Amino acid sequence: MANYSIKVDLQKLQGAFIQNLTGRTETKRCLIIPVDDCDGIFVGEKGCYLNLTAFELDNPHYSDTHCVKVDIPKEKREAMTEQQKYAVPILGGMKPFGASQQAQPKTNVEEHPFEEFGKEDGNLPF
Length: 126
Fold this sequence. Notes:
By secondary structure, the protein is mainly β. It has one domain (3-97). It is built from 3 helices and 8 strands.
């Protein structure tokens, strides 16, 4: 079984940008993604998901064997022209990596409910 390394440029998602947000005790650089405007993002009861598709490349570049794009819902994809499908940006690449490479360890990230970020009083968790 092959393991894959995937790199994605999240700033290529529709409407995404980086913004400094100031909280009670510090300022942090944050990635802002308007989830309702971005194809491929699904907000459910248990999380916010980014659906991606990897396409195998006929002529691999920079050791990437696949390109990664947003997974457009079937109904919307079928209504698109070939030119519109081609214009969907490549977010990144994917390549197999050997067993000698270590997977990145998971870090403990403190969870905050989505509602906490939307408060009008600017009550950020930092």
